[in-house]
Protein: C4-dicarboxylate transport sensor protein DctB
Amino acid sequence: MPRWRAASHSGHGRFWGKGHPQADRPLSGRAAASARRAGGEVELPGANWQIAPTLTQGSPLSAEIATSSLDALPARAPSGPGLRKRQWLLAALLPLLGLALWTADRIAVRHYLSAGQARAEAALRLTANGLEADLARYEVVPQLLAEMDLVRRLVSQPDDTELRQATSEWLATENASLRAADIYLIRPDGETIAASNHLDGPNSFVGRNFSYRPYFTEAMQGGAGRFYGIGTASGIRGYFFSAPVFDFAGRIAGVIAVKVGLDRIEQSWRGDDFRTFVTDPEGRVFLSSEPRWLYASFEAPTPQRVDRTLATRRYADAPLPDLPVERRADHGSLVLRITTDGEARDYIAAAQQMPRAGWTVHVLLDSAAMRAEARLAVFTVMLLLGAGALGALILLQRRARAAERIALQQQANAELERRVQERTAELALLNRQLGQEVAERRATEAELRAAQDSLVQVGKLAALGQMSASLSHEINQPLAAARNYADSAAILIERGDHTEARENIQAILALVDRMAAIGKHLRNAARQPEDPLEPVDLAALLPETRTIVATRLSGSGAVLELDLPPGLPPLKANPTRLQQVLVNLISNAADAVEGAADRRITLSAQAEGDWVILRVRDRGPGVPPLIADRIFDPFFTTKGMGAGLGLGLSISANIVRDFGGTIACRDAAPGAEFCVRLPIARAA
Structure:
């Protein structure tokens, strides 16, 4: 039994097709039962119910109900005590919401500051390791250079001018290979006697005294020296490595020093989120990604620290400012507030000692971005809490309304069940009518399929007839030419002229081959031709073409004129099929000029760019504009009954398209002109 869906509707009984409200019209009970909309909806006459297939007869209703009586029922307003209860609940939730937001802010700030601390410490480890590795490349260089014979000979003979010059040149070569800043050799009294920058004029170290530098005194005591500072001669910052030089008697006779420039290291620190700097043992910044902090005191300056810095002339004459730094703990992380040019910023700090160099590497990360992320996280939590509260309120309201609606629906369902049972009989009748309509439609579809099969068979027979007519049309002309050659050959044999007779027989064989090629072309008319395209010389093709159309030309009294320029490029075509096109066009022209006063037919050709344009013009009646568009259709002809099949131009058009060309016809006044456009064959 079909399933039906019921919904009330005030007004007259109507039948509705699905999705067709324009089919709404008054019906009687019997007319509604005979309505033809399979799977549609029916409104029973005289009732307020619209019934559609969603219910099973006799089963409990599972229907969508929209009755006018339900719309008329009053809605229940919220009661006074219930409203006051919700207001008290909202007042109690506000402090809890504030506490939750404060806690979320604390947790978020702690989390993001801890994450920033971890990032700073990871960057610190990478920076310290990179700095240590970069300096380690040059640490053993002074010791290796001190063992060279040239260096030892110079400290043994420090007044030898030529030896000084040779040593300076050798140090310059080694300095270029090592990519250091400078390499120089110092006597025990502190005077420089050879240097890699000996050619730098006023900036040369030769003759300068560096006895005040700590790296000199440490090396003279027999150890390896290290020192950072600004060059008093060049004014360029660098890190100095030194080693003692022993003469051939085993005594310390000098010090060799290697200066390494650190600007490239400092440059590599710039451009990221971190502020990176290095402080010396006195707490003063000597390497920094922030240029404004350079040479500033990161630790509180004391007189002793200042005196030690000035005694070593570490920073030459550079100004030594103080850097205002305020340290504090914030959510378990060390935060530094640094004021630069009147602007204060908070940074998460991480530091690591470099014991061998006596340095401290610092990495700072601006905490403003992390605090912004924390505020964003708290704001997101606020949105989520607000959305959750709003969703809870909406859910409670919907549940209350759903309970009220269910009560109203239960009252309406009882009335609906009674009325549906009264209409079940008419719905069953309608179902049978719909079944009969489905059977009729299936029978109609079967008849339609049979008719389609018949049309397919008729199409096949029509194609077979067109193929036969095409074969007859194309073979008639070479067959007539072969007959002429055969008659001529018989006469020549009777005369004993066997040579000419043999040539006529060869011409007949060539025509037979041509008829075979035409038949092959017609068999392949429904698919892409398989014969390859090749270069074709038009001038070489015309003598045989004249022979084929000679009978037709003489029969109509037509004269064929040729206008071919010398040096015409070869065409990209097939010779047999191109000759077939020329024969068809010349034969049509002969038919057109038959009985005319001017019976000339002109065949001309000329090259235009990558194309050759062939034109066949007659002086006949011409082609009216009304039939110019249909002249290449199969079986279309303007000749009388029995004078032609109307296939010659259709076949020629197909051949030209296979060559990649075009064919067109126009009224030449007088006569008609066919224009064939073919591509030029290019060398591979």
About this structure: Residues 344 and 528 are 83 Å apart (CA to CA).
